[in-house]
């Protein structure tokens, strides 16, 4: 009984004279996964990411924050620990996020309108929505 390929099974393998031999790495690359829409998943995640809208403070709240900044400026030598909540604009889309930082104020730059923390973090005064700390005693937030 003869098998179907008995007549050619022991012949040498054909080597093309036109096409060079492909390396195993190049051959394997033919079968690797293909991402037809590169960056598509990242774009979907970015679109789905939520941001907060900036809250506009009323004049009374602005006055309270101004008074608190003045108190910090007068007692900055004491290095009181304070908690500042501020709006951080998003770099890629409209809106941003509210961030709270705890630390010690190094200086208040009234010309640049920034609060510089001892860790070199700079917080724009116009973005601050809340300042807390024991240094303020009984000052209310309203």
What can you tell me about this protein's structure?
This protein is of the alpha+beta class and 142 residues long. The chain is built from 3 helices and 5 strands; from the N terminus they run αααβββββ. The chain has a domain at 59-136: SH3 type barrels (Roll), CATH 2.30.30. Strands 4-3-2-1-5 form a 5-stranded antiparallel sheet, covered by helices on one side. Strand 2 and strand 3 (114-117) form a beta hairpin. It is rod-shaped and about 105 Å long.
**How many separate helices?**
3
Largest sheet, in brief, is: 5 strands, antiparallel
Question: What pattern of helices and strands is seen along the backbone?
Answer: HHHEEEEE
Q: What's the CATH C level of the domain at 59-136?
A: Mainly Beta
Determine Rg (CA atoms, Å).
Answer: 33 Å
Outline: rod-shaped
**Structural class, please?**
alpha+beta
Protein name: YolD-like protein
């Amino acid at each position: 009984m003869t098998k179907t390929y008995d007549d050619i099974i022991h012949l040498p393998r054909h080597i093309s004279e036109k096409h060079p031999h492909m390396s195993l790495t190049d051959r394997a690359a033919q079968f690797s996964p293909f991402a037809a829409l590169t960056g598509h998943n990242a774009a979907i995640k970015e679109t789905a990411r939520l941001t907060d809208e900036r809250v506009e403070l009323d004049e009374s709240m602005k006055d309270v924050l101004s008074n608190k900044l003045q108190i910090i400026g007068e007692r900055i030598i004491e290095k009181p620990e304070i908690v500042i909540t501020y709006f951080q604009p998003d770099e890629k889309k409209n809106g941003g996020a509210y961030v709270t930082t705890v630390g010690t104020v190094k200086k208040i730059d009234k010309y640049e309108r920034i609060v510089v923390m001892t860790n070199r973090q700079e917080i724009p005064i116009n973005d601050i929505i809340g300042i807390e700390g024991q240094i303020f005693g009984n000052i209310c937030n309203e």
